[in-house]
């Protein structure tokens, strides 16, 4: 059988199906009680509470308003906890989606600690229309200059200027410390993606 002639099925591409099953509120559907969403850190979580914000752009510079992101990270001490529990004040895994109006995603979390020799970072998986396999990238923090300079993963990127596509810029949102991380799927300043 020649599999090259078979077209893609809905299960082989991310959008808009991912919103229907995983980003219920963004799709206009009722939410579930046990939802993994964008509040990775609740008020009782230890560590520096931060807000992550960003947008996703396609190769033409247009907003991708129906993208979906999964984030996983270490806690403020640089330790990964694989046991997910909605009752815990902090979980190292969360999900978010860009909004259909402003095209922006947000996450409430704590700033992660360094993991071994790696600078504080957050792992990001991007799902969007036209992408059959999610794109893997990382978010680093601009105020971790020394740690970023020594990070072994960042240093694998030979083009030094491209490393900047992984650096989130510090800002403020409603009086809270925030970091903006825009992702560019293609084109000028394309975000560095990894093959993990």
Keywords:
nine-stranded mixed sheet; Protocatechuate 3,4-Dioxygenase, subunit A; 9 strands; mainly beta; globular; 6% helix; 196 residues
**Number of DSSP helical runs:** 2
The mean pLDDT is: 90
- The structure class reads mainly beta
Order of helices and strands: HEEEEEEHEEE
* Number of separate domains: 1
- End-to-end distance: 30 Å
Strand content is 25-35%
CATH class assignment: Mainly Beta
The CATH superfamily label reads Aromatic compound dioxygenase
Topology overview:
Blueprint: H1 17-22, E1 49-57, E2 68-73, E3 93-97, E4 104-110, E5 121-127, E6 135-141, H2 145-150, E7 167-173, E8 176-180, E9 183-184
Short description:
The protein is mainly beta and 196 residues long. It has helices at residues 17-22, 145-150; strands at residues 49-57, 68-73, 93-97, 104-110, 121-127, 135-141, 167-173, 176-180, 183-184.
General description of the model:
The chain has helices at 17-22, 145-150; strands at 49-57, 68-73, 93-97, 104-110, 121-127, 135-141, 167-173, 176-180, 183-184. The chain has one domain (18-184): Protocatechuate 3,4-Dioxygenase, subunit A. Helices cover 6% and strands 28% of the residues. A hairpin with a 2-residue loop joins strand 7 and strand 8. It has 196 residues and is mainly β. The radius of gyration is 17 Å and the shape is globular. Strands 1, 2, 3, 4, 5, 6, 7, 8 and 9 form a nine-stranded mixed beta sheet that branches. The chain has two helices and nine strands. The model has no long low-confidence stretch (mean pLDDT 90).
